[in-house]
Amino acid sequence: MGKRHSKNKKKIRRTLMKENFKPLHTVVPQSITVVDGDTVKFRMGEHTFYVQLIGIDAPALNSGNIHKSPEPFSIEAKERLDQLLFHQAIDWKIGLHKKLTDSTKERLLGTIYVNLDGEYVNASHILLSEGLAVPYKGRPGLTKEERVEYDLLAFEAQRRQLGVYSIPGYVKENGKYNKNNRAV
User: Fold this and answer.
1) Dist CA 57 CA 137 (whole Å)
2) What is the pLDDT of residues 111-165, one digit of tens each?
3) Where are the alpha helices (DSSP H) in the chain?
4) DSSP code of 166?
5) What is the helix (H) or strand (E) element at residue 121, kind and residue range?
6) Which site in 32, 85, 155, 158 is 20 to 30 Å from 45, CA atoms measured?
7) Which strand (E) or helix (H) includes residue 42?
8) Under a CB-based contact definition with an 8 Å cutoff, are residues 153 and 128 in contact?
9) Helix-strand-coil percent breakdown of the chain, rounded to 5?
């Protein structure tokens, strides 16, 4: 019964996402919760929706697996996104991506814009520039200009050996994390 209930809940969430959200629209939830460095969630009515930040990959917290410890800088990435949303931003908004959902159809895809001193800033830019995330190499839907911008922000963080780039060999050439090189 547990799996059936879970499948029904996922099906309902997928239907609700199609009904309530449109590609390229802006969502301004009343409250938001940071799940990890590249995912947030918000409630709408009785349902919870997840938003994957498009174009970045933050280290995994592994919070759903008690046998795995958090990856280096995963806690810092989550805390930094939390700080941006709840301690620095005047307000925030989520720009939904034109694809709307990720490949699992379980999460919305979007960009979080934080209002810092009257100007909206892409939160992913901040995480990339501080070395708390890397450009996600799949990056479907980012424009060429956005990909270049994300790569430049990451390059500068790497040059300055910030965050994930402070551990030699932790970020591989392909932009993936080297799970075997976790020493901090």
Assistant:
1) 9
2) 999 999 999 999 999 999 999 999 987 766 788 899 999 999 999 999 999 999 9
3) 2-20, 74-83, 123-129, 144-159
4) G
5) strand 119-122
6) 85
7) strand 39-44
8) yes
9) 35, 25, 40
